[in-house]
Structure formats: structure tokens, C-alpha cells
Write a structure and sequence with these properties.
The chain is an alpha/beta fold and about 280 residues long. The chain has a single domain, classed as 3-Layer(aba) Sandwich (Rossmann fold). Helices cover about 40% and strands about 20% of the residues. An eight-stranded mixed beta sheet has the order 1-2-4-3-5-6-7-8, sandwiched between helices. Helix 6 links the parallel strand 5 and strand 6. It is globular.
């Protein structure tokens, strides 16, 4: 069941999207015995593509329909396509905890809490996958999307989630990551746990087999010490090895090592990446 909250319930942060001419709808999605809230934003009918693609841009404490992480969404809207996003459960919990830990950054707190949840025997990654699948099911049921016309993207740790979702969902065949985390052992929040097998087993290279035959775009700074450029390159190599085993050529995976400093990705790479992802999707039509 989907419960519409209507324009009047939109928070001020989404008012700018409505002023931009976008049609925004907030909806409730059942996930097991609980519910999550998602938001879909579409161009007005006069600007909507005749066969719109749906972008799932992986959110954090909030959706990624608003700055500072709205670059993928803006590209899709400008080209006549829909975008959906939702706050991730463990990120919301971290955001609430941050109010009690004002000296820490929200990124550190979110990753630390996710780490602790994982090490306690829970699986926040599977929880996210279940949530994302439920959101996409509603989108398909409501005719906002159809299989084969869905793209998923993420930035930094959310790129990791995007690729894990792709590995777990056969209907998702096109996705991108910007400055992607590919191995949690690279992050300072895992300094004391990086020798644990269960942490090593989270690296994306171990999911390369399930990602074979899927179109993947990645961009990362040449000297990204946060997400580790070299491990991203290793993931790229492992993807190509799995594709080669199955008869897929090297055009299935694009990797750009950019001149951007530190753990950043310039707007030009978001523009280029989203253009590549959209073109891949349209070509499958």
C-alpha cells in the first residue's frame, strides 16, 4: 500500500524542487513489519520523456534529491526522467545519535554505527537491500518504472550500497558509483577491525561474479586515500575478469581516474557518468 502525503506535507527542503517545476510525491513503503518513507520527483508532463527511465539515487540521512548530493538527480530531471530516493534506516539512526555527539562528523558516526551493527551479527547491508527492493517494487507497481529502465547510483559509501544492490537484484543491470568505497578495510573507522575476515569478505571484488554482464560506471580521484583508488582499480579488474569468463567484452565497465583532489569528484564527472548511464539504458530499449 502507498500512502500519499501530498504537497502540503513537504518539508521546506523540497520546496525548491516544486518551484523548479518538478512533481514531488512522498510515499510510504512496507518492508516486512515496518515502513519507510521514500520520495519520487518527476518533470512535469510536458517535459517528461515518453518512456521515462527511473533513477534510484541512494540516499543517506535524507534523500539525495537535494544538495549537496543531487548531481545525478539533476541530470535525469533535465533529460526528462524520474528520480526516487529514500533515507537509509541506519543513517537515520546515526543522524539522531549525532545530536548527542556534536564533536564528531556525521560521516564518522554513520559508519561507526553501521560497523558496530554489522559486527554484532546483524546485516545492515541486507536491510538496505530489502528496503531498496521494496521501494523499486512500489515504483514498478505504480507504473513509475519498468524493469530494464532503472538506473542506480551512489556516492562514496552509498556507491558501495548501489553495487551491492545490483549484485542482489537481477532486474538492475545499469549503475554507477562516484568516489566509491569498494573495501571497508580502507576506511579509518575500520582501523581496529580491518584484519577480521568478516570485514574482508565485504569487499566488492567478492561480488564481481554476481555483477558480471551488468553495465557499471565508476569515477574516482587518482589519489583518493579515503576510498582507496587502488582497490577501486582492483574491483574494476575483477569485474573485467568475470565478464571475460562469461563472454562479455570490456565495454561493460567504465572506470575514470580523475584529477580531483582527495575524496572528491568534480561536477564534470557526474555529468559524464550520468550521460553514459542514461545512454546505456536508452540503448537497451
Amino acid at each position: 500500500m502507498v500512502v500519499w502525503t501530498g504537497k502540503e506535507s513537504m518539508t521546506e527542503e523540497y520546496a525548491s524542487l516544486i518551484e523548479r517545476g518538478l512533481h514531488c510525491q512522498e510515499f510510504i513503503v512496507p518492508v516486512g513489519n515496518r515502513e519507510i518513507t521514500a520520495m519520487i520527483a518527476s518533470p512535469n508532463a510536458s517535459h517528461l520523456d515518453s518512456d521515462p527511465v527511473l533513477l534510484l539515487t541512494i540516499g543517506g540521512q535524507s534523500t539525495h534529491l537535494i544538495p549537496p548530493n543531487d548531481q545525478p538527480a539533476k541530470f535525469f530531471w533535465e533529460h526528462g526522467h524520474r528520480v526516487v530516493s529514500f533515507p537509509i534506516s541506519f543513517e537515520i539512526v546515526a543522524d539522531n545519535a549525532l545530536k548527542l555527539r556534536t564533536s564528531a562528523s556525521k560521516y564518522n558516526v554513520a559508519i561507526e554505527m553501521m560497523r558496530d551493527e554489522f559486527l554484532s551479527g546483524k546485516d545492515p547491508f541486507q536491510t538496505f537491500i530489502n528496503e531498496a527492493k521494496a521501494v523499486l517494487k512500489v515504483c514498478i507497481d505504480r507504473k513509475w518504472a519498468r524493469p530494464g529502465r532503472i538506473v542506480v547510483t551512489g556516492i562514496s559509501r552509498f556507491a558501495y550500497l548501489a553495487f551491492r544492490l545490483m549484485a542482489a537484484d537481477e532486474q538492475l543491470n545499469i549503475g554507477g558509483g562516484f568516489a566509491p568505497v569498494t573495501d571497508w578495510r580502507d576506511l579509518s573507522e575500520f582501523n581496529e577491525q580491518r584484519n577480521l575476515k568478516e570485514v574482508a569478505d565485504l569487499r566488492l571484488s567478492l561480488f564481481a561474479e554476481k555483477l558480471a554482464g551488468k553495465k557499471i560506471f565508476m569515477a574516482i580521484g587518482s589519489h583518493d586515500e579515503r576510498a582507496n583508488t587502488l582497490n577501486c582499480c582492483q574491483f574494476f579488474l575483477d569485474l573485467n575478469k568475470e565478464n571475460q569468463k562469461r563472454g562479455f567484452d570490456r565495454t561493460y565497465v567504465d572506470l575514470f581516474c580523475t584529477p580531483d583532489p582527495h575524496h572528491t569528484c568534480g561536477d564534470e564527472w557526474y555529468q559524464r557518468g550520468m550521460e553514459i548511464l542514461l545512454n546505456w539504458t536508452i540503448a537497451k530499449k
